[in-house]
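Please, structure for the following, as tokens.
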Amino acid sequence: MINNVVLVDKLMNEPEIIPTREQIPTKWTKFIMAVERPFKNRQNQFEIDFITIKTWIANTEELKTLLKKNAIIGIKGRIQTFANKANDFYYTEIIADRIIYLT
């Protein structure tokens, strides 16, 4: 099976550093990318998807220093989905294993 995602577009917020719940010295970084769809809607406008990205791969402090709002970045990763069937709620995010700063 293949679960591979590649996105290139604008960073919507500065990365947020979040410690793990298990009290281990591991942290992950979360941010949102605005990714323009490759086609126009009926109003002849490109729509934008706001996609949550998480990563464990980098030094979180270094990533927060490098990535600023509105920067153009590329990410490679995989889709991960969570479900809360009691509330009929589904959440999808991208887990990045590579991040490239483009501007």
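The longest helix spans residues 60-66. The helical segments are 60-66.
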